[in-house]
TrEMBL record:
Pfam families, sorted: DUF2332
Biological source species: Curtobacterium salicis
Protein name per its UniProtKB record: DUF2332 domain-containing protein
InterPro entries reported for this sequence: UCP012608
Length: 333
């Protein structure tokens, strides 16, 4: 898929929820394609470009402002885009992840030591502070899958098909949290919220409200923040987890920004260290995980945009944000 095709596909996918971002994606012209060709392939994601453009003053309400930015501030846009990271890490992506972490925590003799890779401000570092309901697509019934620990928390509802893990009997036990990110955000710092919502379409006020709730929950027990990338800094981040915890690595929409060879080194290193790994990543970018998908999964289906996996084995597929999940009925085994 070339750059124009990627942005057209993104426009079609985002149009129902963000006409402004769809218009920006459809405004991609030869000049913008040439600019994107100057930055690494992992830096050409629409969400990243739009976040950087907004940071540099482009107005999403003006469909022509993206082209204007290319004309008027091209060097600054290239510089910013080359090193930028998407910082939102939408907490809705915890909906598919929480049942897996709950099952893992229930089977462990000690609390989990969570390493959140690509954590930004740690909005997905709070699976224990998520109350999760499954809405069964066939019947419309609600099933409580996990109840958050006491205190600030977020409430998520996912529409599901298939057979998920059993509901959690008690909240996930987390003994330590480490957040690894190239540009980690202190959730208590002034302007943290503004920086997080840069990557969120302006129409998505429900998302920004949920992110504000997650930010409050994150402040209760902020993760230890480590500046770094994977695979280069994976060992350093894992070594920051204290003894007495069951180490678990979590990636949620992170590895698409890591070059393919780096993704494989990351997966190989986790296997070498014997560390459990829960991932919700774009379907197909992890070859080993893709090989474990059922034959009827179509990566072009919006409801199979992301694959949930445990230790490299696919457990479910979902839409981009984990709000619609198809479980395969597989055990964590």
């Amino acid at each position: 898929m070339d750059t124009r095709q990627r942005y057209r596909a993104y426009a079609d996918r985002i149009a129902p929820v963000s006409p402004t971002y769809a218009a920006w994606a459809r405004s991609v012209n030869d000049a913008l394609v040439a600019l994107l060709d100057e930055v690494p392939a992992t830096q050409r994601q629409p969400e990243l470009l739009f976040a950087v453009a907004r940071r540099l003053g482009a107005d999403p309400a003006d469909a022509g402002s993206l082209r204007a930015l290319v004309r008027e501030a091209r060097p600054a846009l290239v510089r910013a885009l080359t090193t930028a990271t998407v910082q939102a890490n939408d907490p809705r992506r915890l909906a598919p992840v929480v049942p897996v972490l709950a099952a893992l925590a229930a089977a462990a003799d000690r609390p989990l030591g969570l390493l959140d890779v690509g954590a930004a401000a740690g909005l997905c570092s709070i699976p224990d502070r998520v109350t999760l309901d499954h809405r069964i697509r066939r019947t419309g019934a609600l099933v409580r899958m996990h109840t958050a620990v006491a205190g600030p928390a977020v409430h998520l509802v996912a529409e599901v098909t298939g057979t998920p893990p059993a509901p959690a009997a008690e909240p996930i036990r987390i003994g330590a949290r480490v957040a690894l990110d190239p540009n980690p955000i202190d959730p208590a710092a002034p302007g943290a919220s503004d920086r997080l919502v840069e990557a969120v379409p302006p129409e998505a006020t429900d998302r920004t409200a949920l992110m504000a709730e997650a930010l409050r929950a994150t402040l209760v027990e902020p993760p230890v923040r480590i500046r770094g990338r994977v695979p280069e800094d994976l060992d350093r981040a894992l070594d920051a987890l204290p003894g007495g915890c069951e180490p678990v690595v979590m990636t949620t929409g992170t590895l698409v920004y890591v070059p393919g060879a780096g993704r494989q080194r990351f997966a190989d290193r986790l296997r070498e260290r014997g560390v459990r790994w829960v991932a919700l990543e774009r379907t197909g970018i992890l070859a080993g995980v893709a090989a474990t998908l059922p034959e009827d999964v179509d990566a072009g289906d919006p409801d199979a945009f992301a694959t949930l996996s445990f230790d490299g084995r696919a457990l479910a597929v979902s839409d981009a944000f984990g709000t619609r999940v198809r479980w395969f009925g597989r055990t964590l085994g």
